[in-house]
């Protein structure tokens, strides 16, 4: 029997035509209790729609881990390495994660203090705020009315470990409160009304498909080189007001200020990743961690007018790298292309981490308690780039 799917409830701000292939609610199933046949269908639907929502479900950390692992059976450790993030004090991810002792691949994230939770006597959680990460901030007096996208990202260590295939997010305690206005503050006047503490998603497929022909050609010919220990490297730097990358102010650590690193563990990934089920290309770049770009020359015999870097290039100027990526990625985070999930308690979201970007949004007061379980696993393989046919088609 086929699983029942329904479109996600889109906000009025969303351009529904752009979400025809993005996001589905799976009706009447518990993601922790799927039969092998249902699991197969859920897996296929996940790659087809990139984000699946299960409502009103009770899911144990063990079941959440098992479902996450089913997408990549030989993966085992948390996407950033078990407990590694917490021991690396210099990493900007350090304060955001608490591990469930029984199932260390599942993290407790949220806001406020949680007691007697899955073997944790007391966990002090802090919802990440743009105030400590962005270069500019919303004035304190407007801080609870207005907010920002914290950091658009792929869940990935971007060094040594491979980006997880999927992430699962389970909302256990969801504070109620007024919606907030997410400001872009980038001179465009863009803003988006968002539910309190939303997780915002944009499609990497849409991000690719809306590029100009020139940028599509560049995208299928390019590889991104990430910094070693990118979250340590970027720690002193500050982000742009849209949360879509870092301001180029020369604040990143130098390579010899970083913890020891090896060239062989540096990640170089294609700019577009091929969906294993649909074959579509998704523009998948974590803008904050990028250091350099490698661009291949046009394939032999291709001669298109206005092609960017027809002879290829290796761009090492960080400002130039970031400006180019921002030009390519910014259109896809326009308000009408963002899906801000309106969390209800016992919502379980499974998303294609290699097919979209997402971000934390919103500002809570310290007494607003939010508790979520998050799981993703460092993958057993690297993402697949465009095929020879894709390159032929788009280059
Ligand atoms: Fe994330």
TrEMBL record:
<keyword id="KW-0479">Metal-binding</keyword>
<protein>
    <recommendedName>
        <fullName>TauD/TfdA-like domain-containing protein</fullName>
    </recommendedName>
</protein>
<dbReference type="GO" id="GO:0046872">
    <property type="term" value="F:metal ion binding"/>
</dbReference>
<keyword id="KW-0223">Dioxygenase</keyword>
<dbReference type="Pfam" id="PF02668">
    <property type="entry name" value="TauD"/>
</dbReference>
<dbReference type="InterPro" id="IPR003819">
    <property type="entry name" value="TauD/TfdA-like"/>
</dbReference>
<feature type="domain" description="TauD/TfdA-like">
    <location>
        <begin position="21"/>
        <end position="375"/>
    </location>
</feature>
<dbReference type="InterPro" id="IPR042098">
    <property type="entry name" value="TauD-like_sf"/>
</dbReference>
<keyword id="KW-0408">Iron</keyword>
<comment type="similarity">
    <text>Belongs to the TfdA dioxygenase family.</text>
</comment>
<keyword id="KW-0560">Oxidoreductase</keyword>
<dbReference type="InterPro" id="IPR051178">
    <property type="entry name" value="TfdA_dioxygenase"/>
</dbReference>
<dbReference type="GO" id="GO:0051213">
    <property type="term" value="F:dioxygenase activity"/>
</dbReference>
